[in-house]
Amino acid sequence: MEESSKPLRYVDIGINLSDPMFRGHYHGKQAHDDDLDDVVQRAKDVGCAKFMVTGSDLVESEAALVFAMPPLACTLARQSSSTSTPGGPSKMIEDLRKLALESKEAGFTVAFGEIGLDYDRLFLSKKEPQLKYFEAQLDLAIEIGLPLFLHSRAASEDFERLLASRLDRLPKGGLVHSFTGTMEEMQRLVALGLDIGVNGCSMKTEENLEVVKAIPLERIQIETDGPWCEIRPSHASAKHLNGAPDLPKSVKKEKWQKGFMVKGRNEPVAIARVAHVIASIKEISVEEVCEAAWNNSIRMFGLGEQSQ
């Protein structure tokens, strides 16, 4: 891997800044002061110039809109693995349509999602309701005209089938975020014209690393998915951290001090380490990874920039 000589710039395309942890709340209790501004500033200091705040239900989407001022934008929808909605599917779709149209018009929302299928969590929602909601939201995304921000876990056959019949009506396509699937799944998604979002959870195993190595540069985007999906010492990716930027000192939440990270709470500042690991796996420069991911994100989501 070659060292970069130019300033790097990042888009964190999946960051859950509306999560209470970034306000010091854990499991309903205030553990430390609100340090959201510090979290964002730390990321900016390493070159993270754009943030996409994820909304995965109506409450989270409305919360994400609070953050949607440059350099922050947001995604907006309801994740299909949680399908219990007061008023039923038609009310949910109508509420989403109203919120999406208003926020898109205001320039806040850049993607429709997080939506998808999660068959690992059938205890939250059975398969049939998931399929029904996912189809309805895909059709709504076409109506709204936003690129997709997608989630798939253990559901590749249904996921790909429902997408394949609709992608030609979505001019900006979409991204499968926090990808942890197989080589074959990745190749099929890329063949559909979708981008692949990579974070710490995407690089836990040796098999994961082989998949990331094979993702075409013109289809890769990077994310942290904070406060989750940190790169851990037990992950296969950890051996690729040699020479990566150091993270600020972290302490347990009970011993939090201003300027410190919190152990176990992933932050967008870690985007630099995700890019470093990808570059090491692919045996190319970090600059190459960052520029490709940046251009892919701007091409798909805009984010107030002109695509190259």
TrEMBL record:
Annotated a divalent metal cation 2 binding sites = 151, 177
The source's superkingdom equals Eukaryota
Pfam families recorded for this chain?
A: TatD_DNase (PF01026)
Q: Which Gene Ontology molecular function entries are recorded, alphabetically? A: 3'-5'-DNA exonuclease activity; metal ion binding
- GO CC aspect terms: cytosol
Keyword match Metal-binding: yes
Q: Identify the keywords attached in UniProt to this record, alphabetized.
A: Hydrolase, Metal-binding, Nuclease
Q: Which PROSITE patterns match?
A: TATD_2
Residue positions binding a divalent metal cation 1: 25, 27, 114, 225
- Which InterPro entries does the UniProt entry name for this protein? DNase_TatD-rel_CS, Metal_Hydrolase, TatD-like, TatD-type_Hydrolase
Family assignment from sequence similarity:
Belongs to the metallo-dependent hydrolases superfamily. TatD-type hydrolase family.
Task: Name the chain's protein.
Answer: Deoxyribonuclease Tat-D
Please report the organism this UniProt entry assigns to the protein.
Answer: Penicillium cataractarum
